Amino acid sequence: MSVSAWLELLASGLITGGIYALVALGLNLQYGLMRILNIAHGEFLMVGAYLTWMAQTTLGMSPLWMVPVSFAVMMALGVVIHWLCFRRLSATSPNLDIFEARGLMVSFGLMFLVQNFASWMWGGDLRGYDYLTDPVKLGAAQFAGNKLLVFALALLFSAALIFVLRHTLLGKGVRALMQSPTGAQLVGIDTQRLHPLMFGIGLGLSGVAGCLLSMAYTISPSMGEPYTVTALIVITLGGFGSMGGALAGGLLLGVVEALGMHFSNPSLKALLSYSVFIAVLLLRPRGLFAK
Question: Which CATH code fits 3-283?
Fold first, then answer.
C-alpha cells in the first residue's frame, strides 16, 4: 500500500472513531453519574439525524445550523425524560442495584418506543442528502469534505465536554458525584438539578452525533441500536466514568475496525469489535485508560 492509501485508511478509522467517541461520551456521562445504562441512547442519535434530514430537505437549512438545534432539542427532551421516568425510579428504588435494573428495563422500553415512532413517522426507507461531497486533497491523500467536517466537529464537541468536566465548577461537581455520591451531597452538591441536566447533555451529544452522521451517510430508523452497542464497547475500552478514556477508546476502536476490515472482510466488522470488547473485559476489566 502507498503512503496516501495508508493515510486514507487511518483517516477513515479516525472519522468513524470520532462519532463513536461522541456517542460514548454521552452514555458514559449518564452511567458514570447516575448509573443509568441507557440502552435507548442510540435512538436519540437517530432522531437527531432525521431532524437534520428534514430541515435540510424541506426547509433548505444547512446541516451546520442544525448542530446546535439538535443539541438543544435532544437536551430538552433528555431533561423531560429524566423527570418523567428516572427521577421517579430513583425515589422509589430501595438501593442502587434495583435502580440500575429498573432503569435498564425503562430504557429498553424507550428504545422500542422511539424506534417505532420513527418508523411510523418517516417510514423504513433509507434517507439522505448531498452535502460537501467534493473531495479535499491533503498532501497526496484525498478525503470527502463532509467526512472531514464530521471528524472535526465530533472532536470539538468531545474536547469541549472534557474541558468543562475538568476545568469548571460544574465539572468538579459532576466528577465529585461520580466518585462519591454521598460525599458530594454532604458538601452541598444539588443532585436534583445536576442529574437531569447531565442526562439532558448526554442525549444532546447523541443528537449532535446523529446530525453529523446525516451529513455523510444514509439514515434509517434502525441505525441507532448498533451505535449504542458500540458506545458500550468504547466505554469498556476507556473505563467506565473516564471521559478521556471514552474519547481515546472511540478513536482506537474506529482505527482497529478500519484496519481489520481492510485486511480481512467488511462483513467481519462486528466480530472485530466484539473480539476487542471480550479481550479487554478479560485482560483489563477496568479499561485500557482507567486510572
Answer: 1.10.3470
Residue 285 has a CB neighbour count (10 Å cut-off) of 10
Q: Are 103 and 35 in contact (CB under 8 A)?
A: yes
Domain residue ranges of the chain, discontinuous segments joined by + = 3-283
Alpha-helical (H) ranges within 35-142 are 41-58, 63-81, 87-92, 96-122
pTM of the model: 0.89
Give the pLDDT score at 140: 67
- Give the closest residue to 68 by CA, choosing from 224, 231, 212, 168: 212
Cβ atoms 13, 254 nearer than 8 A: yes
First-to-last CA distance in the chain? 37
Q: What is the pLDDT of residues 7-24, one digit of tens each?
A: 778 888 888 899 999 999
Would the CA dihedral through 145, 149, 152, 154 be positive or negative?
A: negative
